[in-house]
């Protein structure tokens, strides 16, 4: 038996420089969770995803990397991959599911490419599937996959997890009918359909009832071949990794360097992929409002804004980058002076140690997505504050706000409110900082990413076993009757 994990990106990437290949393993949350889970529970793991390298590079290098899991890359033709990933996945599904209907650029061609890519990946999985395997599908790139696999393997154990929000019916219905049906029937191919929050789960069940006319009982949809259980499985982080990093020698040195650079100034920090869902322009305008409203904070605070390049081939992302940079320039020009730059901006990722040094130097983490499935940055900030110092300002539109109850919550569209909460958090006493962080840390330590993976995989097994027993009993009854 093995777990077949499916996600658009593979947990490793191969980059060639000057003819030499460099293999790097992803340190992302999903890869860490699934790889550690399989190592701990001693199950075999095979990861299927779309390769960001060509087949020749793979053939040359696949044996040069020591790993305890298998990789099955899918090589998609360039144009097909572009339409599948940039067009339907990111310019339709990502936009719509984050409540940006006006950003949706639907084309039939994109939808056809999406379906074709899902078929190719299904064929690949089917070619390595063996009875007893568990197939765990991730995210909005593969909404059609559970159904396609169910057609190949009616008895397979299939789990589907969506990392972004599932929108409400009024938003979802904007899609053409054929796409709506494809998505909903696609997910219903799984035994378990997981979402970050109950709100998302309810949106999904409502869409199934209203569009497909299939009712549910306790979030269970009965179909001929199997049942699908919809439920909430909030993803989390490797708590200990972030908590313990506080004391790493390099992190301590970097933290001292950052603190030394800014002296007595308080630090506001944020890090995101540059994405219109992350509310970066709103955040900047709110920071400007804060400086206008509380001029006594002038020269006493600095906002470290780290943005990570993302989906740069898509027009909307380029436009957003320009807008952000215009705002940073305008605010620094209007509010700053030759001694003080209010916003220190970088459009480059930082490595793990620097990330922790920034988290643990920050007096305030300002996280303001206008819509976010979960938001792991919020959880990482809390976990890394071993010193119990700092305050988390978190948008109520992020899934994480449902769990991090002691965060200072904001409406990301309300600049006035964010300015006031910034003022409050920057002035927060140490006792209150400790109380809030302690409670959130206790929660995160218990609800870490390993528990998330375990709960999801256990749920697949539970539903599957229950259905198998029920169908055996049905078979027995039929035998008796005949
Ligand atoms: C999707 C959903 C959901 C970011 N910059 C750097 C860096 N990061 C790491 C963070 C964090 C991750 O990337 C970002 O995770 P988020 O959850 O904040 O956001 P998305 O990328 O949009 O993820 C989201 C998630 O899936 C999981 O289900 O929570 O809602 O949109 O881990 O630390 N890491 C390093 N340097 C950076 O510059 N080292």
Description:
This is Bifunctional alpha,alpha-trehalose-phosphate synthase (UDP-forming)/trehalose-phosphatase. Belongs to the glycosyltransferase 20 family. One of its GO terms (cellular component) is cytosol. GO terms for molecular function: alpha,alpha-trehalose-phosphate synthase (UDP-forming) activity; trehalose-phosphatase activity. By secondary structure, this protein is of the alpha/beta class. It contains 17 helices and 16 strands. It has helices at residues 29-41, 55-61, 78-97, 108-128, 145-152, 169-172, 177-187, 198-212, 239-244, 249-262, 280-293, 315-335, 352-361, 376-384, 415-426, 430-446, 449-481, and strands at residues 2-9, 12-17, 20-25, 44-50, 70-74, 134-138, 157-161, 192-195, 220-222, 227-232, 266-273, 301-308, 343-347, 364-367, 391-395, 408-410. Strands 5-4-1-6-7-8-10-9 form an eight-stranded mixed β-sheet, sandwiched between helices. A six-stranded parallel β-sheet has the order 13-12-11-14-15-16, sandwiched between helices. α3 (78-97) crosses α4 (108-128) and α11 (280-293) packs parallel to α12 (315-335). The model has no long low-confidence stretch (mean pLDDT 94). The protein binds GDP-alpha-D-glucose.
